[in-house]
Amino acid sequence: MIDYKNVALLKVFIDDRGRIKKARQTGTCRRHQSRVATAVKRSREMALIPYSLD
Q1: Does the reported pTM lie above 0.85?
Q2: For residues 53 and 27, what is the distance between their CA atoms, to the nearest angstrom?
Q3: What's the confidence (pLDDT) of residue 54?
Q4: How many angstroms separate the CA atoms of 54 and 27, rounded?
Q5: pLDDT of 30-45, one tens digit each?
Q6: Which long-range contacts does 4-11 make (Cβ < 8 Å, 24+ apart)?
């Protein structure tokens, strides 16, 4: 289950610069990659994950 509140899980899908990793790198299918991207974006809006990791 991909949830925007599960920050530990979402950090697996974010690279060292704060960008969302590609599906090729994470091994997810199109449907799940879309859900991951939506969850990361929601988490950023709620200020759980920063936009960039400077």
Answers
A1: yes
A2: 23
A3: 73
A4: 26
A5: 999 999 999 999 999 9
A6: 4/38, 4/39, 4/40, 4/42, 4/43, 4/46, 4/48, 5/43, 5/48, 7/43, 7/48, 7/49, 10/36, 10/39, 10/40, 10/43, 10/49, 11/49
Tokens of 9: 């899980």
Contact 4, 46 (CB under 8 A): yes
Q: What is the pLDDT of residue 53?
A: 77
Domain parsing of the chain, residue ranges: 7-45
What is the dihedral sign for C-alpha 43, 47, 48, 52? positive
CA distance 29 to 19: 18
| Sole residue written with tokens 């899980």 | 9
